[in-house]
Amino acid sequence: xxxxxxxxxxxxxxxxxxxxxxxxxxxxxxxxxxxxxxxxxxxxxxxxxxxxxxxxxxxxxxxxxxxxxxxxxxxxxxxxxxxxxxxxxxxxxxxxxxxxxxxxxxxxxxxxxxxxxxxxxxxxxxxxxxxxxxxxxxxxxxxxxxxxxxxxxxxxxxxxxxxxxxxxxxxxxxxxxxxxxxxxxxxxxxxxxxxxxxxxxxxxxxxxxxxxxxxxxxxxxxxxxxxxxxxxxxxxxxxxxxxxxxxxxxxxxxxxxxxxxxxxx
Length: 265
Known about the structure:
Helix content is 50%, strand content 8%. With 265 residues, it is of the alpha+beta class. The N and C termini lie far apart (38 Å).
């Protein structure tokens, strides 16, 4: 699956980003819920392993998932569970473990049947959707690290996987809020990192979202508020969607407030 290679390449970029960091640097707090870089890498590490287990050992995946549920029912936080799961590993040792695991995950999914159904924390997913979700989450959480380190990411056209997730979850944004979409999905005209133009939806509609594909990805993954992008949003449906777009699973989540998720000076 090309998505597995795209996931590998995205992880390679994050690996290069954190390569110069010391153990102490991993304790820097990001703008996402005060998670440290350790929390971010630990989160990606555990859920990458969970995805691999869902593919190769579903019973072990379900056991892991039940452990998460039990921990949270007792009032524990997800970072606390993930810290315990990795036995307190942090810093360079954690980065090395995460890097070793993502290679295993990419290899496993590259050889998988794309249509194979895999268990997850909700409805089952195809293997293609599962590894696409791992790419999306890696890209989204890595933004926190780029931001706190004051680095600007150079995106590649593999972010089209995230654009597709954003398009496919137009209805999910409303379903998770027990709402009905106020109209059909707006037309998208997005400029890829390469300069290619990507379009989705009915071009004849007056409801439109236009601009950089990177910024569309930032909005649907909720790493930026729409007000902090240069996307051109036309029409009430497009405006409403971009005010709360959510391409990831879980409970309804509000986007960050304007001006709170930015690249550090």
